[in-house]
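wait is this the right file?? whatever heres the structure
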């Protein structure tokens, strides 16, 4: 039996959307310098060209070894450079990941609240204790197993063979 889809009237939709903050025409206007920088740096660092540039730098460094006699200074240059870049990128990547996680959480919360019959408690799952999360996980795992068992029981025995032959 198909599930009823709940639709909202235009009036209800406008009431709901008026409560939410509307993004400005310039999305970056609300972000501070670090947020803009972190987003741009994460975008650039995640491209294949950034990886290729890093590989090229390592190759140039390795090839220059004999020129510098594989000295301590030659080794110190790459060690210091990679340490500094790694240290700074941790903060950039963490900022980007925090933003993505928060945006995803908001979207999931909106879906939970919009779904009839959903437990609104789930929208605050990220604030639960580890033991509460484990109990919730076990509950949903059991429900998933029960659903799979019911679906498997309902499926006719010859159904899989007919699909493969088709």
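ok assuming it is, sequence goes like this
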């Amino acid at each position: 039996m198909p599930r009823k889809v709940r639709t909202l009237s235009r009036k209800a939709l406008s009431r709901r959307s008026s409560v939410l903050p509307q993004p400005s025409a310039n999305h970056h206007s609300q972000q501070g310098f670090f947020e803009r920088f972190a987003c741009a740096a994460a975008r650039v660092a995640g491209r294949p060209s950034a990886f290729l540039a890093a590989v090229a730098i390592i190759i140039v460094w390795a090839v220059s070894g004999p020129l510098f006699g594989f000295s301590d200074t030659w080794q110190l240059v790459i060690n210091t450079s990679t340490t500094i870049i790694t240290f700074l990128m941790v903060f950039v990547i963490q900022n980007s990941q925090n933003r993505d996680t928060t945006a995803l959480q908001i979207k999931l919360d909106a879906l939970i609240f919009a779904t009839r019959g959903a437990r609104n408690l789930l929208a605050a799952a990220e604030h639960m204790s580890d033991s509460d999360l484990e109990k919730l996980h076990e509950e949903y795992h059991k429900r998933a197993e029960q659903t799979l068992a019911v679906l498997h029981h309902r499926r006719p025995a010859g159904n899989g063979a007919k699909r493969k032959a088709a």
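The helical segments are 10-19, 33-45, 48-63, 72-114, 130-154, 159-165. so i think its the right one actually
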